[in-house]
Amino acid sequence: MTAAPVETGPRGSSERGKLARARLLRSLLPALSLVLVLLAIAWLNPRAISYFGFSLMLNLAIPIALATIAQMFVIAGNELDLSIGTFVGFVGCVTATWLKDAPLVGVVILLASIGVYALLGALIHLRNLPSIVVTLGMSFVWQGLAILTLPKPGGKAPDWLLSLMAFKPPLVPFPIIAALLIAAVVYFGLMRTSYGVILRGSGGNAAALERAGWSLLKTKIVLFALAGLFGVLSGMALIGITTSADANIGNGYTLLSIAGVILGGGEFVGGRVSPIGAVIGALTLALAASPLLTFMHIPPDWQVAANGAILIIVLAARVLISRRER
């Protein structure tokens, strides 16, 4: 079989240049989306672009970013978690009750919940079950446990957690620092370490990974355990901001986390995820959902529709860029 000729002349260089520009534009889409939302907010209300304005607008961005990272780990293994929202709510109820009144018991419950997430990963792999079905069922379990833990809204966040989430560093608002720290830590662990390559490979090419001697069961357990860990951090951060809990407080985080991952450049198949893009996607959704609509005098009921519109626009742009790459 004769290999296809490779163009080396001016035309070949031009095609390679176009391909490089298309890939660069694709990678910059999450950042461009965030910039466009910030520009719209600055145009509608210039005073919002300030230390106090960002602290207020990005108040809930930290728990959203952590939940998005949790979802990202699951998507990296070609799975989908439909229980992360109710899990965040359950963690919030535990944080506002057991972690406040009996810290040791609260820590044990939260560690056990991470262990349950790891077992879910093992169950999905060993029994070859659809993750959507398993996690959908678990969403009802987490919801029921949250209601049993806190039948009505109330409780109180631990004092140390309130102090942490109320931290006000000089010059740069705390939500921005936290977002940068989350993105940097996860990026290094998942994208720059050898085991991070293995974890992503379990979604990219599981057969090749297994032939190389790596355990797919172990990678699935680790990915789901990491999702549980960041889900716990998300629930704790949320209660540290709201100061009290409700069994339904995290229900909207399931769709937000999926949208954040996809908006940040992730894909449902192939293990293609971007920690930095996921955090940027979470920030974009946090800004677009409430501040932008408020400044545009649009009722809060349209928040979900606005997030969906942003996601559709970004995905449409990604499809156009992918066609150009091909």
TrEMBL record:
Q: Does the keyword Chloroplast apply?
A: no
Q: How does it sit in the membrane?
A: Multi-pass membrane protein
Q: Which residues cross the membrane?
A: 24-43, 49-70, 82-99, 105-124, 131-151, 171-190, 221-241, 253-269, 276-298, 304-321
Kindly provide the name given to this protein in its UniProt entry.
Monosaccharide ABC transporter membrane protein (CUT2 family)
Q: Which Pfam families match?
A: BPD_transp_2
Question: Where is the major localization of this protein?
Answer: membrane
GO CC terms, sorted = plasma membrane
The record lists the organism as Mesorhizobium tianshanense
Q: Does the keyword Cell membrane apply?
A: yes
Keywords from UniProt, A to Z, are: Cell membrane, Membrane, Transmembrane, Transmembrane helix
Q: Which CDD domains match?
A: TM_PBP1_transp_AraH_like (cd06579)
Protein location: Cell membrane
Q: Which GO terms describe its molecular function?
A: transmembrane transporter activity
InterPro entries from the UniProt entry: ABC_transp_permease
